[in-house]
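User: quick one - fold this with adenosine-5'-diphosphate bound?
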Amino acid sequence: MFEVVIGLEVHVQLNTKTKLFCSCATSFAAEPNSNTCPTCLALPGALPVVNKEAVIKAMRFGYAVDADVNETSFFDRKSYFYPDSPSAYQITQLYKAVVKNGKMAINGDDGREKIITITQAHLEADAGKSMHEGSISKVDLNRAGTPLLEIVSGPDMRSASEAVEYLKKLHSLVRYLDISDANMQEGSFRCDVNVSIRPKGQKEFGTRVEIKNINSFKFVKQAAEYEIERQIEAYEDGVYEDEVWQETRLFNVESGVTKSMRGKEEAADYRYFPDPDLRPVVATKEMISKAKEFGELPAQKVERYVNELKIKLYDAEVITAQKELAIYFEELLNGGSDVKLAVTWLTQELLGRLNKLGLSIENSPVASSVLSSLIAKITDGTISGKGAKDVLDYMLENEDSNVDSIIEKLGLKQVSDDGAILEIIDDILAKNPDKIEEYKSGKDKLFGFFVGQVMKASKGSANPAKVNELLKQRLS
Ligand code: ADP
Ligand code: MG
Ligand code: ZN
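Assistant: Sure. Structure tokens for the protein plus adenosine-5'-diphosphate:
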């Protein structure tokens, strides 16, 4: 009956060495206010100079999402008074942003590919940080002037889960592009969620509410769902006009509720105007070619994995969802691992165990070179799949990465030697002349019985593939 409309504004902190308009380091762990200078303190007379690296990274994002990248862009001032902004305005881009009209594909709720438009992405300077201790408030300006890329989507998402899907894709992309560490806990990747509803079939959008500054996928989902529910209820109760108006709300993590923060400012309230201290940003040929320097993107990887490596779409998406995972996987292949085994041993065996330990692939105690030598031991028949699982468990429990010595220690080596296996086979056959008769007269199922007996007699150490092969020979 109702259709949900969501658009996101995502603030991505660019991972440049220095701030957007001065040469102060972008590091917040430092002593408060130590990474500051007359420019980021907004002292009179100090002039901003734009950081080329930040412009290149913004452009790189634009090229990656097939956008119109403006080789000339401008900075504007957005006025507001707040203690953590010493200039009383923010330098941002309103009239001519560096990136316009991009697009990104996500998996829509109907299971099909859906294109989300990226209306624009613009550069802006971050504010400082206020800290409140009892009745005293302090301001740390280490963060003031840090470069942000604000990525604005069209109102294209139709549910909370589509919003999260888009956000995850975006998060993964900026990490692939190496333009941000996108650490959500530390606030390097945070977003404002705009939510409205409308009766199905209505052309005009409903009134949008903006929920500010959310920094986890889970909270985006919760906040959007709460807000959708609130708006629908208001509509059904006939109080939509009274209870839903264009405003900014905050999401309370503890209660799971959004609360009104302030009425939404109109552009006029900000008194935007071009910053007279900054000249237009004109990208040079060199900057453009640097911006276009990026490796294979997740969508292209998925295509290659599916078409060339014959990996299942689902697995390809799991592996490419995270840059580090894709790198690890490709290292396995470069290490000579069989594709199919590499997929299972990475996505199921290793990731399953890391999840249980609360570890991610970046800090996996088992390096890709170690896992690929373990996989090689399965491929060449040295150990069974079951044995390899034991080795992996042992490695994680004991921080030991020596595959050969662990196989030795755990006695997992399979017997693949023809002579030794034939000896066992002949022994089993000699004990079961009646079963051989039955088998020869057509009871094929007995083959499994023989395999089982041989495996048992070898105490599980015989290579099952070899056992099958040699038994067939003997019985024919
Ligand atoms: P402003 O500049 O006032 O913040 P924008 O037009 O830039 O407004 O839109 C901000 C965000 O709100 C965009 O991501 C956009 O997609 C989204 N948005 C706009 N209208 C709606 C709506 N009716 N419902 C949900 N989201 C919306
Ligand atoms: Mg906005
Ligand atoms: Zn500075």
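One thing worth noting: The CA atoms of residues 172 and 342 lie 22 Å apart.
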